[in-house]
């Protein structure tokens, strides 16, 4: 055909996508939650059927509070305490992402939250990585090849971050590509975990930090200036350091915003989730478009596909409908993400040059 293909959910699923911010325990299939709960005798689920459970997760996550949003993970983590549960959730995660056209993904989870059945941290990671590998194999066999790497997350309110950082380095040649801290930001600044970040830097290892979501500029400043992170998990509140009185060309960037843009710090923006947690009031007021037009390195992400009832294709469709983005814009955001991935430079180039650019060339006609 000549000319660009229509931009809708069906064609968006054909577009090659790169995903940097997706939580394993936030992307389970509702039916899987039910089945795993039955297998492990977990009887605390708030609904007894898949449709009702999916609806409960979505509605519970729509509270406008990060703390209440995080409460929904009680149920998903509860059914991910066994080798079988971890393997299945990881495998299905990869299959679902590949089915949505994702060609590269970094999926994160907190091993310390999966020890209730006496698994060791190493065993937790091994079972999850085996599930990811099985998912990659199944996706390749279905003609939907995908590369998936894992980020190991430490909970910022706990005291195991150095231990998890060591775990990430120990498994970095086996499918783990980096480290992260997550959880409620208020009261738990990233500088509480300096020893973990120092360990990552000493070992030339990558890490991102959840910062600038529920808490503002101080969180971002600490993550960059004191912790030295490679990327900002969300980072949406960097907009607090930008003044736009009239035309965007006259926007005034504060020192922190200027530094983030100048040094090309990737922003792992999650539009739907940012609205749900109250980081932004509504999608049309999301600073994604402002940041994109100011040429920050913005990327599109899902965060938690179950809680937000979303996918990469749906997130891109919402951005198209809200801000009018076309295929060229979506290609730029995808390449932004791939440039920022925690895998070796030649692998990033291969996916950009051999998969992403040819895929968008077809969509652009």
Q: How many strands?
A: 10
Largest sheet: 4 strands, parallel
What is the straight-line distance between the termini? 6 Å
CATH class category name: Alpha Beta
Mean pLDDT across every amino acid position:
96
| Helix and strand pattern | HEHHHHHEHEHEHEHEEEHEHHEHHH
Strand order of the largest sheet: 1-2-3-4
Q: State the shape.
A: globular
User: Structural class from helices and strands?
Assistant: alpha/beta
CATH architecture: Alpha-Beta Barrel
Question: CATH topology, anyone?
Answer: TIM Barrel
What is the total domain count?
Answer: 1
Strand content: 5-15%
Query: Considering the protein shown, what is the CATH homologous superfamily?
Result: Metal-dependent hydrolases
Q: Approximately how much helix is present in the residues?
A: 40-55%
Which parts are unreliable, with pLDDT below 50 for 5 consecutive residues or more? Answer: none
Number of helices: 16
Question: Which oligomeric state applies?
Answer: single chain
Structural Rg: 19 Å
Binding site for substrate: 23, 25, 183
Cofactor: Zn(2+)
Domain Adenosine deaminase: 16-357
EC number: 3.5.4.4
Question: What this model shows, in words?
Answer:
The protein is α/β, with parallel strands linked by helices and 365 residues long. It has one domain: Alpha-Beta Barrel (TIM Barrel). It has 16 helices and ten strands. It has helices spanning 9-12, 30-39, 50-61, 66-71, 73-78, 83-99, 121-141, 161-170, 194-202, 217-226, 255-262, 271-276, 288-293, 312-323, 327-339, 345-364, and strands spanning 17-23, 102-109, 147-155, 176-182, 208-211, 231-234, 242-243, 252-253, 267-269, 298-300. The chain has a four-stranded parallel beta sheet with strand order 1-2-3-4, sandwiched between helices. Helix 6 (83-99) runs parallel beside helix 7 (121-141), helix 8 runs parallel beside helix 9 (194-202) and helix 15 (327-339) runs antiparallel to helix 16 (345-364). The model has no long low-confidence stretch (mean pLDDT 96). Its cofactor is Zn(2+).
């Amino acid at each position: 055909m000549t000319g660009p293909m229509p931009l809708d959910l069906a064609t968006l699923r054909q577009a090659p996508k790169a995903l940097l911010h997706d939580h394993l325990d936030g992307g389970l299939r509702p039916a899987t939650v039910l089945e795993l709960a039955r297998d492990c005798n977990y009887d605390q689920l708030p609904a007894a059927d898949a449709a009702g459970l999916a609806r409960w997760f979505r509605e519970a996550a729509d509270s406008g509070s990060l703390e209440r949003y995080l409460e929904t993970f009680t149920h998903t983590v509860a059914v991910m305490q066994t080798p079988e549960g971890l393997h299945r959730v990881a495998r299905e995660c990869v299959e679902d992402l590949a089915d949505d056209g994702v060609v590269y993904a970094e999926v994160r989870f907190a091993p310390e939250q999966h020890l209730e059945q006496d698994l060791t941290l190493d065993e937790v990671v091994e079972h999850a990585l085996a599930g990811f590998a099985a998912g990659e194999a199944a996706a390749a066999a279905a003609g939907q090849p995908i590369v998936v790497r894992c980020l190991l997350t430490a909970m910022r309110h706990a005291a195991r971050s150095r231990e998890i950082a060591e775990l990430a380095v120990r498994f970095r040649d086996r499918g783990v590509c980096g480290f992260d801290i997550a959880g409620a930001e208020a009261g738990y600044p990233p500088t509480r975990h300096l020893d973990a970040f120092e360990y990552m830097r000493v070992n030339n290892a990558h890490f991102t930090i959840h910062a600038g979501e529920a808490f503002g500029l101080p969180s971002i400043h600490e993550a960059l200036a004191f912790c030295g992170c490679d990327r900002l998990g969300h980072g949406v509140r960097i907009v607090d350091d930008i003044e736009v009185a009239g035309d965007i060309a006259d926007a005034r960037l504060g020192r922190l915003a200027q530094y983030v843009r100048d040094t090309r710090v990737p922003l792992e923006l999650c539009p739907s989730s940012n609205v749900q947690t109250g980081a932004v009031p509504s999608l049309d007021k999301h600073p994604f478009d402002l940041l994109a037009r100011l040429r920050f390195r913005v990327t599109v992400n899902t965060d938690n596909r179950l809680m937000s009832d979303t996918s990469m294709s749906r997130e891109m469709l919402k951005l198209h409908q809200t801000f009018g983005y076309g295929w060229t814009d979506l290609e730029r955001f995808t390449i932004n993400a791939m440039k920022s991935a925690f895998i070796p430079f030649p692998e990033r180039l291969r996916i950009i040059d051999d998969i992403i650019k040819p895929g968008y060339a077809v969509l652009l006609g």
